[in-house]
Amino acid sequence: MEAGLDYMPGTASLLEEIDKKILVVLRDGRTLIGFLRSVDQFANLVLHRTIERIYVGKQYGDIPRGIFVVRGENVELLGEIDLKNEGVLPLEEVSVDEILEAQRREQQNKQEEQKKQNKKLLERGLQPHAEGTADDFT
Question: Which residues, 6 or more positions from 130, have their beta carbon under 8 angstroms from its beta carbon?
């Protein structure tokens, strides 16, 4: 099977996204939105006018980050932003302080739930899962 002439394998396909607004989801869960200015053979990215978008429930907040360099191995998902529909979100935008407080509360609730789950497992004679993931050991 012969590939089309317009197909570029691997990270070379990212060259088509240069100067476009993209969304990048990182391995640590953060979401970045910015203009792709540079990419190399390792999929390392340079984003310009970058914001970090935090989602909590049906709310979101944007933290300005400026120029952001992302190591390629940390990219989990990357996609172009549809500029026509960018402003049409079924979410409420809130201030940075409000979203950070909501995120803190959400993380606190998750920790409390995890503690309850661990306690239930211990009561049944089972060992709870370790907090870390396999990535923590590499």
Answer: none
Q: What per-residue string of b and e applies to 116-128 under the rule 16 or more CB within 10 Å gives b?
A: eeeeeeeeeeeee
Distance CA 32, CA 45 (A): 11
Contact of 32 with 22, CB cutoff 8 Å:
no
Mean pLDDT of the chain: 87
The answer to whether the Cα torsion of 65, 30, 92, 46 is positive or negative is positive
79 CB burial (10 A radius; 0-12, 13-18, 19+): exposed
The predicted model gives 108-121 an average pLDDT of 93
CA atoms within 13 A on the CB side of 134: 0
Q: Is the pLDDT of residue 8 over 70?
A: no
Asked if pLDDT for residue 126 goes beyond 70, the answer is yes
Q: Which residue has the tokens 């310009």?
A: 48
pLDDT digits 0-9 by tens, 51-73: 999 999 999 999 999 999 999 99
